[in-house]
Amino acid sequence: MRIPWITMIAAAVAMAGCATTAEQAARMERDMESYIQIYGPACQKLGYQQDTDPWRNCVLRLVMYDGYWRYGYGGYGYYGGYYGYRPYP
Fold first, then answer.
1. pTM metric for this prediction
2. pLDDT confidence band for 3 (50 / 70 / 90)
3. Beta carbons within 10 angstroms of residue 56's beta carbon
4. For 43-56, how does the pLDDT look when each residue is reduced to its tens digit (9 = 90+)?
5. Is the Cβ–Cβ distance between 86 and 69 less than 8 Å?
6. Distances from the Cα of 28 to the Cαs of 20, 25, 31, 32, 78, in angstroms?
7. Domain segments of the chain: what residues?
């Protein structure tokens, strides 16, 4: 039985897109480092001391907040608005 070459190429491309758990963890660490560089100073200005749990929580909340308004995650917005509505500038 012959397998069409298109099916073999599709299977190879699908397998190439798979990432191991270690690769996923490394990518998540890189993402978190960039989030800390971007949002960490804002959390310090808000009064959180760096490298504490509340500071990390602040960084993650700012990442989520940015995702809500930039990409429209979560259906209704964080404050009950609809997509594209921003309650303040």
1. 0.56
2. low
3. 17
4. 999 999 999 999 99
5. yes
6. 12, 5, 5, 6, 24
7. 27-70
